[in-house]
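Now for one specimen:
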Amino acid sequence: MKKMCIISSNPDFLGGVSLYTWDTINELKKSKKYDIFWIYGGRSNRNYKKNGITLVEIKIPKIYPFNEIIFNFKVKKFLEKNWFDIINSNAIWGFWLKNYKKKSNQKMVHTYHGSTYYFFKNHFKRNSFIKKISAFFSMKLGILMEKPPWIKADEIICVSEHVKRELEELYGKRRKVTIIHAKTDTKHFRPRNKKLIKEKLGLNLKNWYGLYVGRGGFWTKGLDRVINISKEIYKKDKNYMLLVIGSDQEKVQNILKDKFVVILPPINRENLPYYYNSSDIFFNLSRYEGGDPTLATGEAMASGCFVVCSNDARQEIIKNEVNGLVIRNFDKLAAEKILKVMDDKNKKEKMIKNSINKITKLSQIH
């Protein structure tokens, strides 16, 4: 049995990187060929078992970006003291490769979930001068931290074609780059009876719902864009409501004051499918995304939501007016486009059917 080390985010965090890592591990466990260790940064130093793998938490400070820098240095020390046949680092947790001396017969794989440089670049559109300065230094730090694995890893995995293109623009082309999209569990996320699910969740049957799911910052995830469009929809139809799941209420309360907004805390994975099922529209209006599709977009597609994406999110799996809408503006005209589809039952159902078929085929590749 080979020893494999995966360096990723906190396994209990309901974010895309952690869930992508769990999917990877579940696939690997089927072969019964690997003894898997998962290393992540946390608040203490401890080793423990969960779901048949060994979790290694390494204590790091809370302050960004020092926490990520220190974590990478501690990872390097850990790997120098412990043998692994395969090491798979993720996201910005591959900087340790810069000065790591590869041992004989070791294989190094790094997974990019996006480009840190382009992730922070979108903040230059913000009005705050401080945010722009912070974004500038974050972009520089991002290049510093994400470049070493591109050069030194034996193989590279990207979660989408556009992430691969972004990295090639920054660091040049290289061999052995594989695209592995985020997997959608189409047995767990699937269409259900909307009326019954609304009753189960205690939602008003007279209302119809938009849905936003996001743990990240409201700017990058485009929550303000969702609110702008939802305001225009609500002006035309007072039965419309917007479900907002996972946002830090203290940070976004200034933009969530409208009475059509229903703020919900993070929902566990078992109950999350029902919120997709109860919703008529799923919004992904991000200013930057790595995955194509993102985890939430794939889940919404599989659940039978009508999906509306921003062009910036680069959800190339969504083809405009074929299996969803792709929009560039977030105003009255965008709201009218959405309502036009909602009013055309045949067109909407055809687009949703195409969306389900698309994500089902993509998920069967894994």
